[in-house]
Design goal:
By secondary structure, the chain is an all-beta fold. The chain has strands at about 1-5, 10-15, 20-25, 30-40, 45-50, 60, 70-75, 80-85, 90-100, 115, 120-125. The strands form two sheets. Strands 2, 4, 5, 6, 9, 10 and 11 form a seven-stranded mixed sheet that branches. The chain has a four-stranded antiparallel sheet with strand order 1-3-8-7, with no helix packed on it.
Length: about 130
Amino acid sequence: QVQLVESGGGLVQAGDSLRLSCVASGRTFNLNAMGWFRQAPGKEREFVAAIGWITGTPYYTTVVKGRFTISKDNVKNTASLQMNSLSPQDTAVYYCAAVQTGRTWFFANKDHYDYWGQGTQVTVSS
């Protein structure tokens, strides 16, 4: 089992920045990737960004490219999401997710992730 704990959400104004962090604990030795998803009220949970745990290859959804940056620290078992130029459309609960090796994995498919954090609220006012 892997436990994920997010932090860093909050209330900001349009144009501001936030940095989310996700700390993984437990059986982290065979992680394949970690990702960030978000869910706005009344909407489906959607992919935001992911990163290969060994390769470090980043993946982004189109609407955040150039504004968000995903990074990882394998020593601290942490994945972070730096969010710049935030807009009200970025308002959502942000979830961290992780997938172990040996599983079919497509970075944007939420069903391909094994573990989820509890979520952290990000609210961007106009």
